[in-house]
């Protein structure tokens, strides 16, 4: 276990980012909260205002961070694949130069569909209705950007099909690149338990570069 890390969270104010920060702080890690309008009363959380659409600003924020690791949990509404991939590449470039580990919280669409190993969830209408195809495709493109990046230390965490605020149980199932479903066929986790999995992976990195989790 890797206690006392310095963790930068890009997307700090979001559903996932805010819970990762809470989990990391509860375990005694220091946090840099990066978003356009970050705020925190916690002395262990340093707010860093940065627009991830500005590569120079993002590079400068990471260079000044002295972080051990950076969690990327960015999202825009509507989805902006160019922004998402561009910001992810900028983080990967900077992090590789600075020796910072990267954990990307991406999309379920980048996983293989259970029982159809050649089919991505993004292309499986059973999981991804037409209305969210573009969101799923952006997640796939974000994973490809990681896979095509030369060198660097990254891991891409795909949530299950459904990720929403809930309660922290501290338990979850861990998989690799295939969507996880429970006995009831549901592919789900609370954002609180996803945050537990994120911080577990940061503290004890596993061997896989693409992982997923679901409620236990
Ligand atoms: N089932 C699934 O696959 C599933 C479900 C839900 C979420 N997710 C994924 O989980 C990740 C996190 O999602 P979320 O639900 O936590 O998103 P969210 O609540 O919408 O938060 C998005 C974060 O991105 C930040 N952000 C957006 N544009 C930015 C910019 N230009 N510069 C800096 N920060 C910016 C926002 O901060 P500011 O606006 O304060 O700058 C906010 O902190 C995403 O990859 C999302 O696709 C996957």
TrEMBL record:
InterPro entries: NAD(P)-bd_dom, NAD(P)-bd_dom_sf, Polyketide_Oxido-like
Record-annotated NAD(P)-binding domain positions: 11-205
Molecular functions per Gene Ontology: oxidoreductase activity, acting on the CH-NH group of donors, NAD or NADP as acceptor
Pfam families linked to this entry: NAD_binding_10
Protein name: NAD(P)-binding domain-containing protein
Native species: Streptomyces spectabilis
Taxonomy of the source species: Bacteria, Bacillati, Actinomycetota, Actinomycetes, Kitasatosporales
